[in-house]
Design a protein that fits this description.
The structure is a homodimer. In chain A, helix 6 (about 205-220) packs parallel to helix 7 and helix 15 (about 495-515) runs antiparallel to helix 16. In chain A, a hairpin with a 6-residue loop joins strand 23 and strand 24. Chain A has 16 helices and 25 strands. Chain A has 3 domains: about 5-200 and about 365-445, Metallo-beta-lactamase, Chain A; about 205-355, Metallo-hydrolase/oxidoreductase (Rossmann fold), CATH 3.40.50.10710; about 465-550, Ubiquitin-like (UB roll) (Roll), CATH 3.10.20. The first copy, chain A, is of the alpha/beta class. In chain A, the strands form 5 sheets. Chain A has an 8-stranded mixed beta sheet with strand order 7-6-5-3-2-1-19-20. Chain A is about 30% helix and about 25% strand. At the A-B interface, helix 11, helix 13, helix 14, strand 23 and strand 24 of A face helix 11, helix 13, helix 14, strand 23 and strand 24 of B.
C-alpha cells in the first residue's frame, strides 16, 4: 500500500486575490481552510458576487470534518452561507469571526442549523488524523489567526492574511514565539499570503493612522467624516477614540458597518468610551465641531452612505464648506474611477477631502516584502506555496522565497483546482480537480455563465434591435408587422427614418427569401442578416438583432 | 461703450482630464486653443470617444480666426477632425503636430481642405486684435509649445501640457528665458495644467528611463518587448537607441504606433541609426537576444498588439520563457484591471515582466508640484485658472497657487462652459454658455445620449426579456404567441420552466386585463408589469422587459 500523503488543493485564492478556499486532506479526513467570496470583475456585467465551485467538496462530503476560518473578511468567510447551503459541516473560528458570520448566516436563514465552535489562539482541534492549531496574527481586523495543520507526515502552515504590526490597535501582536517554535519543530509546507509582495519594506502599523486622525481633529472646525471598509473594525476603533479625545461624538452610518460594529461591540472587540457613540440623529443635534461620522462608501459604491452624501441625496447627513472627509482606504483595482468621482463631488461641495498615499490615512492589512521574508525565516518550511495573489504576485513571491534560500523546485506555483501532495521530502503537483467561478446574480447561484455574460457585453455595447413579424403558416405571407423596436441603440425619436428603413429590409428579407413557405428558423436568420447588415452600413455599429417571427 | 475685455471659455478640459478645448476671445476675434477628445468613462457603455460640444463655436463661427494646438496628443488634438467637419478654420501648430494630425485628417477625408500652418517656437501669429506667441516646453512628445496670447488688455498664458525636464530626449529644453521675460513684461492670466498636482517634488526626466532600458538590455538573454503609449515618440526613441547600443534591432508593431513613428521619422523627430529599425518579419529572423519589439497595448486594450501576444493570438510575435516585457506606461484610471490581466498572462507564459512605480520604466509628462510652483513664479500672473484636471486637482492647485502668493480671489475655479472676463485688474466669471460631452459611437456623432446609455446600463445588468404576441384587432383574442425570448438574463436551456411560466403570466395579463378589446399600449404595459413582477419574485433580478404586441 502506498504511503498516505498530505494533500492541499486551492479551490480559490490563487491567481486571484479573492475567494480564498483551500482543502487540506489526509486519508479520509478533509478540512476546509477559509471560505471566501470575490467581487465581480468589470466584465462580469450584472453579477453580484463570485463564489468558488465546490464540486470537489460535494463529491467528498463524507470526508469533510470541518470548516476553519482565519478571520472575518468577506474574501475569507463570505462564501460560507452558500457553501453551508450545500454541505453540512461545523465551523471553527475565533469569537469575533463567529459573531460576524452569524449575521450572514441569519440573513440566509441558516443560523442555528450550523454548528459554530469558538476557538482562540493557542487552541488545538482534532479532525481525525489531522489537527489544527490556531495562532494569533495581526491584520486589519481583530481576532485573526494563522493555522498550523498537523498530519502524520508533517505540518502545513496556512498564513491567512497577516502583517507583522508591532503595535496593533488591540495590543495583540502576532505570536512570534510560537511561529519561531513551529519553525524549529519543522514545517513541511507554508502556504503564504503574497498579495502585497510588490511593496518593499514593512507595512506601517495601524497606529500611524491615529496620528493623522488626531492631526485632523486638532485642526478641523467643521464636521469630520471618515470612511473605510465596513469590516475595518480597528479603523473604526481608532476613529472613535481619536474623536473622543478631541471632544467629538461619533455616529456610525451604513448598514454593513453598523452591523459589524454592533457585533464587535457586543463581543468586546470595540472599546467605546461612555457616550462616545451616538445615533446619527443625536449627533446631528450637536455643533459641527463636535461631530464625527464614520461611514461606508470608501470604494465609491453607488448606493453607499458616502456616495449619497456626495450626491447630496442622503436623508440624514449633509456636508458643508469647511467640513472634512477622510478616505481611509485605497481603491480596490477597478474602483479607482468611482472613488475619484466621489472625491471630486465632495470637493465641489466645499468639503476638504483627505485621501491618497501621501496623506497617511490608510495602511494595508497585508505583509510587505520584508514581512514576507520574516515569515519565511520564522517558519523555515521545506515547501512553499504562494497564495492570495494574482499570478504576477505569485511569481514575485517565488523569487523572494528563492532569495530566502528555498530551492526553486520546492516552490509550487498553483492554479485553482491544482492538487498538491506532500510527505517527508516530497512535494509535487499531482492532479487537477474541477474548480472555478460560480456567479451569484440575485438569488440565482451558478445559473449565469459565459453565454449570458457574452450577451450582456454585446447588449451593453450597442444595445438591441428587435424585429417582430407574424406570418401565415400556410402561405408564408406576412400578416402582421414587421415591427422594429430598439433599446440602447439609438434614441428612437431621432432615428425614425433608420428604423423605418430597417423594417423595409426585414419585409424584403421575409418576402424574397421564403416565397410560399414558412420556415421559422430560415425566416429569422434572413431577417437577422439583412437588418444587421443594413444597420452596420448606416451606423458602423452592431446591436444585437433579435428576430421573432410568429406563425399563425 | 463698455471697455472690451479678454474672454476665456473652457469648452472642455476643466473638471476632467481629457478633451481640452479653450476659447479665447477679444471683441470680434476668437481663437481656439487645443481641440482634444476624451476616452469614455466606464459607465459610457459602448461609446468610442467623447468630444466637446462646440455649439458656442458654431454660433460664433464668423469670429473664429484659427485653431491653435499646443502638441500632438489625442486629448489636445484628437477632436480636430470632428470640429473641422462642422467649422472651417486654419490650424496653427508645430511641424510634428501638423504631421500627426494630417494622418487623422486623411482618415476623415479632410486632408487638403484644411489650411495647416506650421509654426515654431518663437513665432508670433496675428489673429485680428489677438496675437499668439509660441514658446517651447518639454513634454512626453517632441515639439510641444506653450502659448502666450496677447490682447489690448493684457496677456494670457496657456501652458498646454508641460514638465520642466532639464534633459529631454530631443535636447530641447523649455525656453525658461522667454517665460521669465513674459513674467517681467506682465501677464494678466495664467491657465495652467494641474493634472499632477498630487505629486510632490519634480517629475523625473525622461532620461532616467534610458538607464532602466540599458540595464534590461545588458541582462536580457531573450527577446525584449517594450510597450508604451502610441504617441510617446520620445520613449520609442529611447527604446530604439538603447537597443541599438546593445546590438538589438527594433520592430515597431501596432497600427497607431507605426503611423506615429512614420510621421516622426519623416519629419526628423526620430533619430534612427542605419539598420536599427526593421520590419517585424525581418526582426523575427534574428536570434532572440538581437530582438526588440516596441508595441501598442500599454493600457491593456483588448485588440492591441500586446494583448494579442498575451493571449498567444498574435500572428507574428510569440514570447517565450526567458523573454522580457517592459510596461513603460502607467495605467490610465479605469484601465488598471485590464493592464493587470495582461501582466499576469505574460508571467504565465514565463515572460519576465517589468512594470510599476518601483521599477523606473515610466515617468509622467506632466509637471509635479514644484514645477507648477516654478511656472507660477516665472510667469507671475495676476489671475490664475487651473486646467486639465479633475475638480480635486483644481482645488489642490488653487491651494498651491495661494501658497505662491496668488490671492485666493484671483484664482478662478471654472466649469465647462464658464465664461471668464479679464481686463487690467479685473478677472471674474461672468456667464455660462452651452457646453458638454458629445458622444461618438461608430460613425454617429452626438446621437447617443443619456436615454440610450441608461438602457445600455440596464441591459448590461440583467439582460432583456422579450414577450411577443399577436392579437386580433376586433376580438382582442390572442392569435399567436405569447412567445418569450431572452438574452443576457438566463441561459435559456437551463431555464425553460421559468420562461414557460413567464409566458403563462403574459397570457393571463392579456386575457384578464383587456377582455374583448385591443388597446395596444394597455396590453403592453400589463404584460410588462406581470412578467416583470413574476421574474423579480423568482430571481430577484430585473431584466428589461420588452412587450411587443402586434394587432391584426
Amino acid at each position: 500500500m502506498a504511503k498516505k500523503r498530505l494533500k492541499a488543493i486551492p479551490l480559490g485564492g490563487v491567481g486571484e486575490i479573492g475567494k480564498n478556499l483551500w482543502v487540506v486532506e489526509f486519508g479520509d479526513d478533509l478540512i476546509v481552510l477559509d471560505c471566501g467570496l470575490a467581487f465581480p470583475e468589470d466584465e462580469m456585467l450584472g453579477i453580484d458576487l463570485v463564489i468558488p465551485d465546490i464540486s470537489y467538496l460535494l463529491d467528498n462530503r463524507e470526508k469533510v470534518r470541518g470548516i476553519v476560518l482565519t478571520h472575518g473578511h468577506e474574501d475569507h468567510a463570505g462564501a460560507l452561507p452558500y457553501v453551508l447551503a450545500q454541505l453540512s459541516a461545523p465551523v471553527y473560528a475565533t469569537k469575533l469571526v463567529q459573531g460576524l458570520i452569524s449575521v450572514k448566516l441569519k440573513e440566509h436563514r441558516l443560523l442555528g442549523s450550523v454548528e459554530q465552535i469558538v476557538v482562540e489562539s493557542g487552541d488545538i482541534v482534532d479532525f481525525g488524523e489531522l489537527s489544527v492549531e490556531f495562532i494569533r496574527v495581526a491584520h486589519s481586523i481583530p481576532d485573526a489567526v494563522l493555522v498550523a495543520v498537523d498530519s502524520p507526515v508533517g505540518k502545513l502552515v496556512f498564513t491567512g492574511d497577516f502583517k507583522f504590526d508591532q503595535s496593533p490597535m488591540d495590543g495583540k501582536v502576532t505570536d512570534f514565539a510560537r511561529l519561531a517554535e513551529l519553525g524549529a519543530e519543522g514545517v513541511l509546507v507554508l502556504i503564504s499570503d503574497c498579495t502585497r509582495v510588490e511593496q518593499p519594506g514593512f507595512t506601517p502599523s495601524e497606529r500611524v493612522i491615529t496620528e493623522t486622525f488626531d492631526r485632523v481633529f486638532q485642526a478641523a472646525e467643521g464636521r469630520v467624516l471618515i470612511t473605510t471598509f465596513a469590516s475595518n473594525i480597528s479603523r473604526v476603533q481608532q476613529a472613535i477614540q481619536s474623536a473622543h479625545r478631541h471632544g467629538r461624538k461619533t455616529a456610525v452610518v451604513g448598514r454593513s458597518m453598523e452591523s459589524n460594529v454592533a457585533v464587535a461591540r457586543e463581543l468586546d472587540y470595540l472599546t467605546i468610551p461612555d457616550g462616545a457613540l451616538l445615533r446619527v440623529d443625536e449627533v446631528n443635534k450637536l455643533s459641527p465641531d463636535k461631530i464625527l461620522y464614520v461611514t461606508t462608501g470608501s470604494q465609491g459604491e453607488p448606493t453607499s452612505v458616502l456616495s449619497r452624501i456626495a450626491n447630496q441625496e442622503h436623508r440624514q447627513i449633509k456636508l458643508e464648506p469647511g467640513d472634512t472627509a477622510i478616505i481611509s482606504a485605497t481603491p480596490v483595482p477597478g474602483n479607482e474611477e468611482a472613488v475619484a468621482r466621489t472625491i471630486n463631488k465632495l470637493f465641489r461641495q466645499g468639503v476638504d477631502v483627505i485621501y491618497g498615499a501621501e496623506s497617511s490615512v490608510h495602511v494595508s492589512g497585508h505583509a510587505s516584502r520584508e514581512e514576507l521574508r520574516l515569515m519565511l525565516n520564522l517558519i523555515r518550511p521545506q515547501f512553499v506555496v504562494p497564495a492570495h495573489g494574482e499570478y504576477r504576485h505569485m511569481v514575485l513571491y517565488k523569487r523572494l522565497a528563492e532569495e530566502c534560500g528555498v530551492p526553486a523546485s520546492n516552490i509550487l506555483m498553483t492554479d485553482i483546482g491544482t492538487v498538491m501532495e506532500f510527505a517527508d521530502s516530497f512535494g509535487k503537483i499531482t492532479d487537477k480537480v474541477v474548480a472555478g467561478d460560480v456567479l451569484v446574480d440575485g438569488i440565482t447561484v451558478g445559473e449565469v455563465g459565459e453565454v449570458v455574460l457574452r450577451d450582456r457585453r454585446l447588449l451593453s455595447k450597442d444595445g438591441v434591435v428587435i424585429v417582430v413579424a407574424t406570418v401565415d403558416r400556410q402561405t408564408g405571407m406576412v400578416v402582421a408587422g414587421p415591427d422594429v423596436v430598439s433599446r440602447g441603440f439609438v434614441y428612437a425619436r431621432n432615428s425614425e427614418e433608420l428604423l423605418e428603413a430597417a423594417k423595409e429590409r426585414a419585409l424584403q428579407a421575409l418576402e424574397v427569401a421564403v416565397p410560399g413557405q414558412a420556415e421559422l428558423g430560415l425566416m429569422q436568420s434572413k431577417i437577422k442578416e439583412a437588418v444587421g447588415k443594413f444597420i452596420y452600413e448606416q451606423t458602423r455599429r452592431r446591436p444585437m438583432i433579435m428576430p421573432v417571427v410568429q406563425l399563425m
